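ok so i was messing around last nite and threw this chain in just to see what happens. nothing serious, just curious
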Amino acid sequence: MADNDPQRALSTNRRARYDYFINETFEAGMVLLGSEIKSAREGRMSIAEGYVYIKNGEAWLENAHIPGYAPAGEHGQHDPTRSRKLLLKKRQLEHLYDQANRDGQTIVPLKVYIKNRVAKLLIGVGKGKRQVDRRNTIKERDAKREIDRAMRSKI
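result:
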């Protein structure tokens, strides 16, 4: 299972950038069990429904789904949606706590990836978009797509 890619994405939350204005991003380590990391390396992980919260000075990832590692059988499997501790520096935790307590700010998981054989989570601090903002995002994306098509046809 040796990968030459030093940073390989295991799961992305594509909906997060559509639903939130992301102001800042942080890289956090994840505390995973052996069966969880094996299952995640196979790409069987979802963070779309997950969220991050801070409790007692520690950051936790809640509701991220990592199914059991199939070759291990039924014995010794983990709970697929258990809370997973995130590893951040104290100053980053304090900053995240301050940002999360601001009006309308949310901590959202964006991407899980392997960096130098260690599982990392990219989390973003952002504010939720309203319906009008989402429509504008779609219009901008469609306009960019049309411009790209026009440029390709000219070449």
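not much to say yet. The helical segments are 14-19, 34-41, 90-100, 131-154.
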